[in-house]
Specification:
Elements: H1 2-28, H2 35-56, H3 63-77, H4 80-92, H5 96-125
Length: 128
């Protein structure tokens, strides 16, 4: 139960950080490019790679701290970082076809799912 509390507390700060960083970065481009999202995804991926290496290969972080930082903070900061790490691990293990499948599935199926969600909302609720 304690791990849920750590994840929830860290998740709160991850979400707030995402909102602040995304807004600040997005304002720099005056809405012409989704720089806020790109910044969050790239920074989140960098942090997850760093934290993962420290905790898994050097055992610098306790399991509780690792869980709070990765699942809690970074999980609410960006899920793209998890996708990036999983793709990296598949490539590192030599599973290039699985890595490619993961990349294609997440990117294209994700975009397709957004499109389907928009269409469903328009059909079901008369949204124009």
């Amino acid at each position: 139960m304690q791990s849920y509390i750590y994840i929830g507390m860290a998740g709160f700060f991850g979400a707030i950080t995402r909102y602040a960083l995304s807004g600040w970065t997005g304002a720099l481009f005056e809405g012409r490019f989704p720089a806020g999202t790109a910044a969050v995804n790239i920074i989140g991926s960098l942090l997850l790679g760093f934290i993962y290496t420290l905790s898994m290969e050097r055992a610098v972080l306790s399991p509780e701290v690792r869980l709070a930082l990765t699942v809690g903070f970074l999980g609410s900061f960006t899920t793209f970082s998890t996708f990036s790490l999983e793709s990296y691990n598949l490539m590192r293990e030599g599973s290039f076809s699985m890595a490619l499948l993961n990349i294609v599935l997440n990117l294209f199926a994700g975009i397709a799912a957004v499109f389907i969600g928009v269409v469903l909302a328009k059909i079901l609720y008369g949204v124009k």
